[in-house]
Amino acid sequence: MIYREAGQFKTSYAGDQRVFPILQDRWCVAAAILFAYAIPLLANEYWLQAVLIPFLIFALAAIGLNLLTGYCGQVSLGTGGFMAVGGYMTYKITTNIPDINIIVVFLIAGLCAALVGLVFGLPSLRIKGFYLAVATLAAQFFIGWILNKVGWFYNYNASGTITAPPREMFGIVVTGPHASAEVRYLVALSLVIVFALVAKNLVRGKVGRAWMAIRDKDIAAEIIGIRPLQTKLLAFTISSFYCGVAGAMTVFLWLGSAETEAFDIFLSFNILFMVIIGGLGSILGSFLGAAFITLVPVFLTNAPLMIGLSMPIDMQKHIEVMLFGSLIIFFLIVEPNGLARLWQITKEKLRLWPFPY
Amino acid sequence: MRIRTLVLAAMTGAVGLAAAAQVPAQAQNDQFFPMLVYRTGPYAPSGIPVANGFRDYYTMINERDGGINGVKITFEECETEYNTKLGVECYEKLKNKGSTGATLINPFSTGITYQLIPKASVDQVPILSMGYGRTAAADGRYFPWVFNFPTTYWSQASAFVSYVGQQEGGMDKLKGKKIAHVFHNSAYGKEANPTLEALAAKYGFEFTGLAVDHPGQEQKATWLQVRRLKPDWIFMSGWGVMNQVAIKEAAAINYPMDHFVGNWWSGSEADVIPAGDGSKGYKSAAFHGAGTGWQVHKDILKYVYGGDEAKAKANNMGEVLYNRTVVNAMFGVEAVRTAQAKFGNKAMTGEQVRWGLENFDLTEARLKELGMEGFTRPVKVSCEDHETGGPIVIQQWDGKTWNVASDWISPIREVVRPMVVAAAEAYAKENNITAQSCN
Amino acid sequence: MLYNFLIAPFLDMAGSPVFFAEVVISGLLTGVMYSLVALGFVLIFKASGVFNFAQGVMVLFAALTLVGLMERGVPVWLALILTVAVMTALAFAIERIMLRHLVNQEGIILFMATIGLSYVLQGLGETLWGSNVKRLDVGIPNASFEIGGILLNEFDLFAAASGAVLVTVLAVFFHYTRIGRALRAVADDHQAALSVGIPLKHIWIIVWSVAGVVGLVAGIMWGAKSGVQFSLSLIALKALPVLILGGFTSVPGAIVGGLIIGVGEKVAEIYWGPLVGGAIETWFAYMLALAFLVFRPQGLFGERIIERV
């Protein structure tokens, strides 16, 4: 009833090939974007800084990893490393050439990360599955080590950390301590929307189909004329580009200052959780997964207070951790294909609701 | 399937709704101290005594004096697991609580301190990173909101060299000696390296840095290098599990433990106990006394634990990190008092506390009133100097307790201070910060 | 520059052969310690195709339980037995609550589920036994002695010996017992094994229990070094390169892999580390494993996968 596509006839090829072919989807997405832009009017600084900005950044990184893992089938645990490259290169470029627009710097840093991703993607031609996953940890540890070791990356400062300097766009401060949370949120939101749309387009085109063919059976894909080397490397490159930009945003729009520990292996694991919990091979899933991983702990931390339960803070944390783990297991048992699949099921139901038969 | 989906949808909705609700802030005349603690996670063994120390001192002030000049102290813990990202969340959650917002913040994590330094001036919450964080912040002209008195990593490293000089019988005896620095391979661990290198050039000792990979559970390679190098002295900047393993490995290669000196984050009870008898003789730096022999401990025992010594002991009273945070909490409270002397006996805002910190003058007489005579040293902060280069003391583990094993040793200020100023200027240049006038 | 990297380290090794021998020996001993952790992964992967990320936390949980019991005055031998019982009960619970519902899911889903499990176990362990560091002393000798200029530690030797015994027992178990054969059958194909009448549930409980016991041994060895605390679970990260180098499915592979990684990373750290500023062990181990993988994508002893379209 609500979600009925009957009667929506496509009269042109362009209409048939739209990103969101169904009217309701278009409305939903438009409404969601509009709402997202209106959020700064509603939310306070805690919400923006501690929940929404990280959510956006994680969503972007999750999209990046989803392109690689969900669409191309290559499991990677080097996400944190690629994000670190993005963060550090942005710092290096913008402190040495302050005149370049900061968004352009993000993109250049993303390219650097893409290049690094390309190199670490090379073994994927021979190594598969969990072997590849563990092998990508080499990238994670090596990048962390070298960024920490080589002073050039952090301008030889004594503390070895990078700090986001103030940068302006159209006369508004977007990075650094004086940038308001609202501005940083809006910048992050705009970037994420653009990149999500690009990703959505990428995966339904030739590139995306090649990735999925490789994912489903690489030998078969090779036989029908898809070159595994180029396809896999392209996936690594683009995925790392996304992660690199997300890393730049982490330092410049969220944390404001970082050392290599901010991009440790647990970040890589977290991004992988988001992709799997959200749904492999789904852009929407990346958002849902990021929301799950950022929102649930915040909820679990604040829940006991709200129902007036007070307990020692360490006990509360332990329970929180256990609940979080149980929720992951629960969701995987109930719906191994992720939250995106749940949404799909909901849509199916909505099509007939309230008259299912 | 239907029910399952419904349950799921309900749960997802509940998460969203519940997360949207906010915890109401209490509004009264109180002085709010936010506490970023880590009672769980990999650094919990250090985090627990730290958190208990703050809690007990604040409680004691409320119970004994009825607050700071009549203004009750309130405080709230927020668990960070020593994770920088959770630290940011906690900070955002706590910074506006209480009647005047957060008084000041003690991040107790180098990572979180770096994070908060740029925000401090914007949010008007002063940072008191006592003996950690960004050393360059000691230059108050560029970091008006950040205080790291009584002393810093760089001062500590130089005081360690002074100590070695004393032990060897004069600074001239350092020539040709070998000193190794075993450090956690992170921003924190590397802090002491430039100072030690500069001092090596000045005094002619041979300096070797030995990096230990995070988290530091496996250090065989490092200690093999020590075995080959045979350094006369070892200085260690470790943290977490690295400390316990390093002490164990040093004992296993029969290194003389009394020539092995940890920095002040490498010398708590949790660090030496796992190594058992092997750690006997191990030394570490501190800027406060060891044990429970001071009036302040008696007060805490009386007012917080009602005289229950076993309970106090179970809550880490008298442990190294506990004592350190008692000093830290005292600094915070006294800064508020200093501010109240100027602005009146009411709850102080962040801006006023900043003034209090900048004009902080803790005299010997005041320490005596506080029951901390000899426990720590007088501190006088100035607008330029937020560090004060306070002296350190070397403590030694006898297998049961930590005991003070040296006099107060002053840092070599003529080497350290110019380095601080240079680092602060570089930071300021990069971030377009202009110096505040100090006249 | 080239001389420093390519020639000087070798001259250094040749120059002091005794020290080089000490480096190699301590690398071998460390390698066995890694193998102990890697073994737990191998067992579970072999029998159920699950890459059990929770193995690190199981090591922690086992050690915490042991220490916790001992702190409450339980004698060592009883505490050991009780801990084994707890780990078995845990295996039972994991099978009942988690694995049973995830039969035939993809590897990555199972992997995720074990990550969830690691959160649960971590919270549970800390709730039960506290977050403080605890000293673990089960009476293993710990004196150092020197033979021909090479410093050895009794504890390291003991650990290596117990590792060797454990591996031999497990290898024999897998190859010559009825249950062992059933385990291998399950590893090959869940459904085929079910259809010839192998009870999947029991096999899983057995293998998770054995992995728990292996975890306990690893926990005792590593816990004696650092004290029992949260960081013990991070030891899994040291075992992963061993795992891919030896192959996910090979018990002897875990040992050989451990030895190669142990010696490789020590030699690299000591002779090449100082040239680039040290602390290269972690990534070097992964790079070394990666280099081997490029030539043998299934690890040294892993089963070759024959792919068909």
Please supply descriptive tags for the structure shown above.
heterotrimer, B: about 450 residues, alpha/beta, Rossmann fold, seven-stranded mixed sheet, two-stranded parallel sheet, 16 helices, about 15% strand, globular, C: about 300 residues, mainly alpha, ABC transporter involved in vitamin B12 uptake, BtuC, two-stranded antiparallel ribbon, 13 helices, 2 strands
In a few lines, what is going on in this structure?
The complex is a heterotrimer of chains A (357), B (439) and C (309). Chain A is mostly helical and 357 residues long.
What would you note in describing this structure?
The complex is a heterotrimer of chains A (357), B (439) and C (309). With 357 residues, chain A is mostly helical. Chain A contains 14 helices and 4 strands. In chain A, the strands form 2 sheets. Chain A has a two-stranded antiparallel ribbon. Chain A has a two-stranded antiparallel ribbon with strand order 2-3. In chain A, helix 3 packs antiparallel against helix 12 (283-306) and helix 4 (79-96) crosses helix 5 (102-121). The longest helix of chain A has 28 residues, at 228-255. Chain A is globular. The mean pLDDT of chain A is 89. Chain B is α/β, with parallel strands linked by helices and 439 residues long. Chain B folds into 2 domains: 26-151 and 292-389 and 425-430, 3-Layer(aba) Sandwich (Rossmann fold); 153-286, Rossmann fold (3-Layer(aba) Sandwich), CATH 3.40.50.2300. Chain B has helices spanning 2-20, 44-65, 84-94, 110-123, 153-168, 187-190, 192-203, 220-229, 241-252, 269-272, 295-303, 309-314, 320-343, 350-358, 364-369, 413-430; strands spanning 30-37, 72-79, 127-128, 146-147, 178-184, 206-212, 233-237, 260-262, 283-286, 361-362, 379-380, 393-397, 402-404. In chain B, helix 9 (241-252) links the parallel strand 7 and strand 8 (260-262). With 309 residues, chain C is mostly helical. Chain C has a single domain, classed as ABC transporter involved in vitamin B12 uptake, BtuC (Orthogonal Bundle), CATH 1.10.3470. Chain C has helices spanning 2-6, 8-15, 17-48, 55-71, 76-97, 107-129, 154-176, 178-188, 190-195, 200-226, 236-246, 251-276, 281-295, and strands spanning 144-147, 150-153. In chain C, strand 1 and strand 2 form a beta hairpin. In chain C, helix 5 (76-97) packs across helix 10 (200-226). Chain C is globular, with a radius of gyration of 20 Å. The chains are: A mainly alpha (357), B alpha/beta (439), C mainly alpha (309). Chains in contact: A-B, A-C, B-C. Chains B and C meet through helix 2, strand 6, helix 8 and helix 9 of B and helix 3, helix 10 and helix 12 of C.
